[in-house]
Amino acid sequence: NDLQKPSGLLSLLLFAGYLNPVRKLIVAKNPVYELAIPNHEVQYIYELRITEWVALQLDIDSDRYFNFVQLLAKGQIKDFQEALQQYLLNSTSFYQTGRKTAELFYNGFMLCLINTLKTYYLIYSEQEGIAGRADVMLIPKIHHGTQALVIEYKVTQDHDKLTEIARKGLQQIMKKGYTQPAKKHDHVTNVRAICIAFAEKNVAIAHDNLLL
């Protein structure tokens, strides 16, 4: 039963050596530690299992999934949104994780989504901008393009405001300077800012292309 709780699962991974503590964040009676994946072999296992899990949830094989994700990287946002909507509608219900933990479904989905593109991009999670941190930033590797991607995602239960929430997420990217770190890379000339908003099995995307 303990493994059904995040703390139980993380404790097992920690004691088994699949996660390592790297620093203490809070010094108190119950300290909180930052954890890290110990090596590339364990990272590969995580990526493989998460890819398998998301592929099962979306009922899609890895080749089709990669082609689907490429729509996002190529800026074909409308096609990507339509495909994503269809996959979510046909997938195993995210309610199997429970309503309160439904965000874990989207977290797992986004992690798998982004790692599929690692051949072509340097991937940064929670990269600090001027006044906050973007969920994900993708910097194209040299000779693989000049456009970076900054992705923010939101989860809500309000279907009627889904598009509005996506737009507000896009404004958050602009307002808090999430695209700023991309300027450190000389070969990057522009950034596509993307906010993906989820409401159960519905999705809305707001995006904009910004010159650096």
Written description of the protein model:
With 212 residues, the protein is α+β, with helices and mostly antiparallel strands. The protein has six helices and seven strands, in the order αββααααβββαββ. The strands form two sheets. The protein has a five-stranded mixed beta sheet with strand order 3-4-5-6-7. A two-stranded antiparallel sheet has the order 1-2.
**Helix percentage:** 25-40%
- What's the number of extended β-strand segments? 7
Rg for CA atoms: 18 Å
> Helical segment tally?
6
Low-confidence segments, ≥5 residues, pLDDT <50?
none
Element string (H = helix, E = strand): HEEHHHHEEEHEE
- Biggest sheet details: 5 strands, mixed
Spatial order of strands in the largest sheet: 3-4-5-6-7
- Class based on secondary structure composition and strand pairing: alpha+beta
Strand content: 15-25%
Dominant shape? globular
Overall average pLDDT: 84
**What is the CA–CA distance across the termini?**
50 Å
Write a concise synopsis of the structure shown:
With 212 residues, this protein is an alpha+beta fold. It has six helices and seven strands.
